[in-house]
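Appendix B. One record, verbatim.
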Amino acid sequence: MNKKKKLDHLKQQYEDIQIPKDLKQKVKSSIEAGKSENESRRKKARFTGIAAKLGISAAAALFVITVAANANQNMAYAMTKVPVLKNIVRVVTFHSYEEKKNYMEAEIKTPKVTGLKDKKTQKELNREMARYTDMIKKEFSKDLRKNGGGHKSVTTDYQVLLNNDSFLSIRIRTETSEASSDSFSRIYNISKKTGRIMKLGSLFQEKADYRAVISKEIRRQMRQQMKADSSKSYFIDTKKDDVPVDEFKKISGSQNFYLTSSGDLVIVFDKYEVAPGYMGAPEFTISKKLLSSILE
């Protein structure tokens, strides 16, 4: 088979693959119960956020292909055989754990990244994501042995927040439920140019007080939202007679975050972290223009 016929054959093989109807699966459930909100907040899984500078160019056609590949492993495999597409970074489901006993159930998905130029970083990232979801599985199994007749549900899924020429961001989100509900995330950000898994602080100049700048803007947005909508509430400006809460003052050095395709910074909080449970898991977008003077 000559080169042209071989390429035509691979192209046909790629075009024959059917895209599944459901490209996303909603995460449905809530959290452990019998625990107070403060106790839930203390026991949430935490991790060191990672990030790098974002290159903002990404072709629309490449975006469509990447989304499709992330949704279908067969399609992703065929794409690697087409010469033009073989170097695309993909995120696929490496392992799916499902367990159900009486009224206790879990569905926990572990993502896997392929196609990163830096294979050492790729291996480290996949190992860390597997370790993290394995920790969630172990906690559920422990509860299952201890409270086999109880009511509990755990759902862990992942989402590709950004995948362009320079940057890959993956969120692993867990929702648990029993008598009350909770949700928490861990976000992984990888620079494709440097091959690094990086922290939030790496985006900024060495001596810049980026946490203070970002926190001030978040508090401003919180106040603005509460003023515009009386149903919204955050843990700031609490009064003496209010229910005691840990008032939000400053983001942590390991704060969850990701970057948008336009280069803005998005700070992500877990449920209950900076607001009552009904507010969900708040996110705040910080304009790159506001941060321009302290960026690395």
